[in-house]
Amino acid sequence: MQEVTKDDVLQPPMPSCWNEETKPHKFCPGCGHGIILKALGEAIDELGIKDKMVYGCDIGCSLLAWDFFAIDTVQTHHGRTTPVITGIKRANPEVIGVAYMGDGGGYAIGSQHLFNAAVRNEKITVILCNNCNYGMTGGQMAPTTLPGMKTETTPYGRDTEQTGQPTLGPEMVAAVAPAGAYVARGTIANVRQLKGFLKKALENQIAGNGFSFVEALASCPTNWRTNAKQTWEFVEKEMPQYFKVGELRTPQAKEG
Q1: How many domains would you assign to the chain?
Q2: Domain-located, residue 132
């Protein structure tokens, strides 16, 4: 029997800005992070900005992207990705800075940084993966856990009387960011649309308009304890009922 080599197997296309040596990636099977990062990679390729970028990732599942791209990368402490990328951007305004994080890094310990970066209209791009739980530490309740959703710390379902309502991050950012900001929420259930939002967020930074923020609804079957059908139904049907998908803020047209 003839030996089958790697070159004989049909390989799925990967963004050229990916680091091929680290693929397959380190995320769990069915995890939404890889889909978000592929959409981001394709947007980077289409804009031709690989060599102009600095990519930052948070602690949590997002830290598994520390070697995901063949791009200058920094991995930060909990919730500090936004200020680190802000500092890099301020030190070198020509850099295209991307801060990538989970819902904990953006809406819990990192919420002060996200909020104030939006208020200051920092010219960076923040991308946040919303999978409704703390993934890396075992699936505990996160700021985005849906009402009634069961997690390791809400075994009977999230009680909003005790814990409040899930955080609506893009809505918060859109409410405080000044003119020039771009804010959207996408989903891995519509990758083409998600890539479009990510591309617009990067273009907004390149144009020097202001703060850009994209939340992406994503899957976590390992902690949700769902099969493929249940996972997709939750992402495609249940999450968007609370987290509305679409653009919330676009830069105002400049006069002149």
Answers
A1: 1
A2: yes
Segment 139-190, tens digit of pLDDT? 999 999 999 999 999 999 999 999 999 999 999 999 999 999 999 999 999 9
| CA distances to 75, 146, 244 from 241, in Å | 33, 10, 6
Query: Is 28 part of a structural domain of the chain?
Result: no
Range of the domain at 142: 53-191+200-249
Residue for token pair 């991050």: 169
C-alpha–C-alpha distance, residues 175 and 114, integer Å: 13
Name residues of the chain where pLDDT drops below 50.
Answer: 253-256
Residue 223, CA distances (Å) to 24, 30, 86, 138, 158 in order:
21, 11, 32, 7, 15
| Whole-prediction pTM | 0.93
Cβ atoms within 10 A of the Cβ of 5, count?
A: 7
| C-alpha–C-alpha distance, residues 77 and 129, integer Å | 17
In the chain, where does DSSP find H-type helix?
33-47, 81-91, 103-107, 111-120, 160-163, 169-176, 191-206, 221-224, 228-233, 239-242
**CATH number for the domain that contains residue 90:** 3.40.50.970
Q: What is the pLDDT of residues 71-90, one digit of tens each?
A: 999 999 999 999 999 999 99
